[in-house]
Every structure is written in structure tokens, then in C-alpha cells.
Design goal:
The protein is an alpha/beta fold and 309 residues long. It is built from ten helices and 14 strands. The strands form three sheets. The protein has a six-stranded parallel beta sheet, with helices on both faces. Strands 9-10-13-12-11-14 form a six-stranded antiparallel barrel. The two termini are 29 Å apart. Bound molecules: riboflavin (RBF) and magnesium ion.
Length: 309
């Protein structure tokens, strides 16, 4: 996949470009189906499949909401899109200035003239451009004079869920990681770096944990989860706790994971957690012994649930 991070890198239009554009947060199965349509259309006209997306996520620029929780950070989004088989990914730097681009200008100058769009695949409710003034009817109106085809892709549903990034954010926020998986087509993942903890896990409970600082992304609801852990491209299994460790005084929020059959020291190294099952809520125990006994049960349960991973 060719990745373009600056429109100035495009020196001539792509051959018979078939385009889709959006934020694609989550790269969920709805997005994946859309990308397959783009690829198939491109193949049928001996063309190039082109995805146009924006970095950072526009909501972080328009609403000045720097902490809007996103499902897939840029690096994961690029990796996932790379796996779909799309020819070219164009990441437009999203600034306040760019946000003011009228919808018509975006279509004419960028999609048609710069990229050479011959067809665009979009969802029925797609909107774009300044104040989201662009929509399917504007595209259809411009299609004739600018020589491109508009292909509308239908909604996809899975077990009654309409697949959308918003729905996935809600599910993850509620701790429903098994449901989120159905919409994502993979486990929900967070990435972070291992930081020094208080060493309390190993010393007091007998279960060492890697404490994580999450990068700026959506964190599942507090609780205990069966997870797979990726470190240095190797996959392990484990149990993660998200929360305040209420059993102990002045508990502060943290994400930590006890990795099975693992005793390397990995401070300051990146790891990834894939949320497979939610085991329980976090609870206040009478003391470290009863908490340790519960964690032992959590580990047994998680080993069982993760046997297929
Ligand atoms: N702390 C709590 O106070 N209540 C819990 O229910 C709880 N569950 C945990 C489950 C697992 C699998 C792990 C690894 C940790 C859990 N913790 C819980 C956090 C525990 O207090 C913490 O690991 C130690 O205090 C070390 O930081
Ligand atoms: Mg720890």
C-alpha cells in the first residue's frame, strides 16, 4: 500500500481512481466492506483503489476536544487499512484551515483534479466538507459535469447492531468487549507503554503486573478482563485490571496486566492488549489475601476462556 501524508506528494492523478473518504475510526467490518467495494470497482475498470482519510481525527480539531476517545490511533488505523488490500491511502493533515474547505472545492480540486476520481463509494448518510454541507445529492449533482460515478453502499448489520464507530465506542465504554468484537471483526485493542508500578502486585499479592500508560485512546470500562498481550510481536495471554484498586488506600486509576508464563522486565516498552472477555467488576476486598484468592480464580477462568486464542 502506498501511503501519502502530504497532498504535495501527488504529482499526477491516479489511473481510474476509485475513491472512498472518511475518518474510518475503528476500521470496523462496515469500513472493511466499503473498502472491498472500492477494490472490486477499481479492479473492474483497471483502476486504483484510493482511501482518503484525515489526521488527526477531525473531532479533535473542530471541537477542540483533544481527548475525544478514538478506537484506532493513527498507527493502528494505517496497519489495519494496509491489511485490506487497498492500493493507496491518502492521509490529509486535518487543520482548522482545511476544515473550512467548501464541499464542492474538496470534490473538484482534491478528488477530481488532484486524485483523478472516476468513481466514489460512500454510505447513504455520508457528509463532508465545511460544516458537513456535502452529501450524496451534491456528489450526484457534480458527477455528470466532472465525469465520475457515485456508488452508494448499504448499511451492514450484525446481530441487530447497525455497525458504526459510535456504537463500538458505546460498547467498549460499557465493557461489552465481546459485542464490540463482532462489529470490529477483531478484539478491541489498546496500545501503551509499560511504566514502573509500586511493585505491590508481585510483593503483596504474588502476581506481578505490567502497569500501562495508555496512549490517547478509548479505555474500556473498569473491571477485570481476559486478554491477549502482544510484546515484541509475540503473543501471550493474561488478565488485565482496569480501575482504582479500591482494596488499597489512595488508589489511582490504572491499567495493569498480569501476563501468564512471563517474567521479563519490560519497563518503557510498548505492549498491546486485546480484550477477549470481561470477567467481572472491580471490587473492594477485605485485604490482600482475599484479593489474591480472587485473582487466582480470575487466572483460572481466563486460561479456560483464552484456550482458543
Ligand atoms: N484491585 C482491587 O482492589 N479489586 C479488584 O477487584 C482487583 N482485581 C484485580 C484483578 C486482576 C486480574 C489484577 C491483575 C489486579 C486486580 N486488582 C484489583 C488490582 C490490584 O490491587 C493490583 O494489581 C495491585 O494493587 C498492584 O498494583
Ligand atoms: Mg504492577
Amino acid at each position: 500500500m502506498q501511503i501519502i501524508e502530504d497532498l504535495k506528494e501527488i504529482s499526477s492523478p491516479f489511473k481510474n481512481a476509485v475513491v472512498t473518504t472518511g475518518n474510518f475510526d475503528g476500521v470496523h467490518i462496515g469500513h472493511q466492506a466499503l473498502f472491498r467495494q472500492v477494490i472490486e470497482k477499481a479492479e473492474s475498470i483497471d483502476g486504483t483503489s484510493v482511501l482518503v482519510t484525515f489526521v488527526p481525527h477531525p473531532i479533535r480539531v473542530i471541537n477542540s476536544n483533544k481527548h475525544f476517545p478514538i478506537i484506532t490511533r493513527y498507527d493502528q488505523k494505517v496497519e489495519l487499512i494496509g491489511e485490506t488490500g487497498v492500493d493507496t491511502l491518502i492521509c490529509i493533515p486535518f487543520t482548522r484551515e482545511f476544515a473550512a474547505t467548501p464541499a464542492r472545492t474538496f470534490v473538484k480540486d482534491i478528488l477530481c483534479e488532484l486524485i483523478g476520481m472516476k468513481a466514489i463509494v460512500v454510505g447513504q448518510d455520508y457528509s463532508f466538507g465545511r460544516k458537513r454541507e456535502g452529501n450524496v445529492s451534491l456528489l450526484k449533482e457534480m458527477a455528470v459535469s466532472h465525469g465520475f460515478e457515485v456508488i452508494i453502499s448499504g448499511w451492514i448489520e450484525v446481530e441487530g447492531y447497525r455497525i458504526s464507530s459510535t456504537e463500538i465506542r458505546n460498547l467498549v465504554t460499557e465493557g461489552k468487549v465481546e459485542e464490540a468484537e463482532k462489529l470490529l471483526g477483531r478484539h478491541y485493542q489498546v496500545r501503551g507503554e509499560v511504566v514502573r508500578g509500586r511493585d505491590r502486585g508481585a510483593k503483596l499479592l504474588g502476581f506481578p503486573t505490567a502497569n500501562l500508560t495508555l496512549y490517547d485512546e478509548l479505555c474500556p470500562k473498569t473491571g477485570v478482563y481476559a486478554v491477549t498481550v502482544e510484546h515484541d510481536s509475540v503473543q501471550y495471554k493474561g488478565v488485565a485490571n482496569i480501575g482504582y484498586s479500591p482494596t488499597f488506600k489512595n488508589g489511582q486509576f490504572g491499567v495493569e496486566v498480569h501476563i501468564f508464563d512471563f517474567d521479563d522486565t519490560i519497563y518503557e516498552q510498548p505492549i498491546r492488549l486485546n480484550f477477549v472477555h470481561r470477567l467481572r467488576d472491580e471490587k473492594k476486598f477485605s485485604g490482600p489475601e482475599s484479593l489474591a484468592a480472587q485473582i487466582k480464580l480470575d487466572i483460572e477462568k481466563a486460561r479456560e476462556l483464552l484456550s482458543g486464542e
